[in-house]
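Reminder to self: tokens first, then the designed residues, so the page reads top to bottom the way the pipeline ran.
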């Protein structure tokens, strides 16, 4: 309290003794140096000489502030100069603190000003909205309306941004009503903010209506619509609007390109993606790492690996996100061996893997059943401090299960301090895959006791375990429990498990009744499960009926033809076998050969059934 009184007295005496303005000295500060530290020293020197600075000088220096500490020094100089009630400088200070994400300090400055104009209110509302404090932004917006200060176009823009951040569609519609009622012009700023708000809240019809009403649109307006369509699952509409944007002659920016590329990837629209690539080159964004990463991701998801590799090799700056895009693209499209090679290569180039890298590479080890590489990855995870992450733990458990080390997977599961529904599901599925059905069902009971709610994947794992062991009554119990106890409606995969259970048990009438009650037409997995039951029980008549449906919905799957041929052969109906072989030849179908992997000295070698290209090693294997 005493220090505050002394500070106040100093300011009072300072203001009385000092002349009001020495503008020549103020202009001198600006020209002395562009360096903020030098300018701050000059400011300190002038205050020591009792020469005050005008508000324009302080404002110019605030605009040049590069760090928070420099901004605080300038704030102190403003207080010393007596401008603690200057609304213009207060607005600049609020903008400065908001720019560095210190909304608390910005609010202190705001609250200290007695006479606030629309610019100061806008600065504070924008500061909150831009720093993720959307609720505070809207509270201040409503307080502004009640204070007698009329919002302008920019106020509504910042308030709409806050509504978008909260996905507050009702608040957004209310602000839209005020905009219309008060006759606010739907300029590019207000229009774009409305479009963005409606799009982020999933109301694309309203967003399109506002967009169509805008007399002037800029790149932000177009990008908000494209982003909205893509994020709301309307990828084809996003691409259509992008093409309209190009025809309209709007200059593209990097954000637009990064929003349309995922839409191309989602639709596997390679040719459209190449059109976007041409726009990237034309608009000189080839060197932009973020755009390059999105482009590479598009090529990888469209399975155009040659283009992805060429783009990757040309990138002069390759950060971890770019490496991740390449690794994920390879892993998701089945080229898991290359994904592992890229992981090792990125480390040789001194790029540190992050969490995304780890959870992308571990499934590659699992797919190849490369246990030694998986163990090496596990050691790397421990060294890097990623072991406590739940998603990494889930991937490790999955990897050990698929590599055959169920015991190690169980130990990892028991050591997990936190478990998600995925953790339980992966472990249940693992036990079921390896024939430990009792362990799988016991673990499901433990999951229920903890209060963790199983999802549709968990029930797939449980029903698969019952299917492997032929536990028909248990399977019926879990299938009925899904909807009744957990509000999880059965999906196609659950019906496939139940039909398989019933087919294996020879309950064909019940299996067909269940299929008739399905809300959708049975797919190839459900019909294939029933055909498998026909093979076990030599039911040729039903097998023929099911096969006709299978050949219609999945005509290119040679496995279905082979399965029917085997049923004919088991029943001694050789004319049927000959008919199926003729059908396969006419349709140009061949059964996909079996494949296997072997890991030798940390290298994974893949082989196809009947392949003898590795002739030098073949003699030793078949000897």
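Designed residues (623 positions):
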């Amino acid at each position: 309290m005493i220090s505050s009184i002394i500070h106040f007295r100093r300011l009072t005496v300072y203001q009385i003794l000092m002349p009001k303005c020495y503008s020549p000295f103020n202009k001198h500060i600006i020209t002395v140096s562009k360096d903020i530290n030098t300018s701050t020293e000059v400011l300190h020197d002038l205050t020591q000489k009792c020469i005050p600075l005008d508000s324009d000088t302080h404002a110019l220096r605030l605009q040049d502030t590069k760090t928070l500490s420099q901004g605080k020094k300038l704030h102190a100089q403003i207080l010393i100069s007596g401008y603690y009630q200057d609304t213009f400088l207060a607005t600049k200070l609020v903008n400065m603190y908001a720019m560095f994400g210190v909304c608390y300090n910005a609010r202190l400055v705001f609250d200290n000003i007695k006479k606030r104009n629309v610019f100061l209110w806008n600065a504070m509302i924008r500061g909150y909205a831009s720093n993720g404090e959307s609720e505070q932004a809207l509270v201040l917006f409503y307080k502004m309306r009640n204070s007698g200060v009329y919002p302008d176009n920019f106020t509504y823009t910042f308030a709409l941004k806050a509504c978008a951040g909260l996905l507050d569609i009702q608040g957004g519609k209310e602000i839209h009503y005020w905009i219309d009622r008060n006759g606010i012009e739907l300029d590019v700023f207000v229009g774009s903010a409305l479009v963005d708000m409606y799009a982020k809240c999933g109301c694309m019809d309203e967003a399109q209506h506002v967009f169509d009403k805008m007399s002037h649109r800029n790149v932000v307006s177009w990008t908000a619509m494209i982003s909205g369509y893509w994020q709301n699952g309307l990828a084809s509409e996003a691409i259509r609007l992008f093409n309209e944007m190009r025809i309209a002659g709007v200059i593209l920016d990097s954000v637009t390109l990064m929003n349309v590329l995922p839409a191309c990837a989602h639709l596997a629209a390679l040719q459209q993606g190449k059109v976007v690539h041409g726009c990237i080159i034309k608009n000189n964004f080839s060197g932009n790492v973020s755009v390059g990463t999105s482009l590479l991701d598009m090529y990888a998801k469209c399975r155009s690996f040659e283009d992805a590799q060429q783009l990757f090799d040309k990138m002069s700056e390759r950060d971890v996100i770019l490496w991740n895009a390449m690794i994920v693209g390879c892993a998701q499209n089945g080229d898991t061996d290359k994904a592992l090679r890229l992981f090792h290569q990125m480390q040789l180039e001194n790029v540190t893997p992050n969490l995304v890298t780890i959870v992308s590479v571990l499934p590659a080890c699992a797919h190849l059943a490369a246990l030694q590489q998986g163990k090496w990855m596990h050691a790397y995870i421990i060294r890097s401090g990623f072991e406590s992450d739940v998603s990494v733990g889930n991937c490790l458990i999955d990897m050990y299960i698929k590599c055959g080390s169920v015991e190690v997977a169980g130990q990892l599961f028991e050591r997990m301090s936190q478990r998600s529904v995925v953790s339980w599901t992966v472990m249940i599925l693992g036990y079921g895959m390896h024939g430990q059905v009792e362990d799988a069902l016991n673990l499901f009971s433990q999951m229920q006791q903890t209060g963790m709610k199983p999802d549709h994947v968990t029930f797939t794992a449980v029903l698969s375990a019952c299917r492997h062991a032929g536990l028909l009554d248990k399977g019926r119990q879990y299938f009925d429990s899904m909807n009744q106890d957990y509000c999880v409606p059965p999906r196609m995969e659950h019906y496939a498990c139940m039909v398989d259970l019933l087919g294996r048990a020879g309950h064909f009438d019940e299996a067909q009744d269940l299929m008739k009650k399905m809300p959708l037409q049975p797919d190839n997995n459900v019909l294939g499960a029933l055909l498998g039951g026909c093979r076990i029980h030599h039911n040729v008549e039903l097998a023929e009926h099911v096969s006709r449906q299978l050949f219609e919905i999945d005509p290119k799957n040679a496995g279905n033809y082979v399965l029917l041929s085997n049923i004919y052969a088991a029943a001694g109906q050789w004319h049927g076998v000959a008919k199926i072989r003729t059908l396969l030849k006419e349709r140009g179908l061949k059964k996909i050969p079996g494949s296997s992997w072997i890991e030798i000295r940390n290298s994974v070698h893949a082989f196809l059934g009947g392949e003898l290209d590795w002739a030098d090693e073949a003699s030793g294997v078949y000897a």
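The first strand starts at residue 595 and ends at 600.
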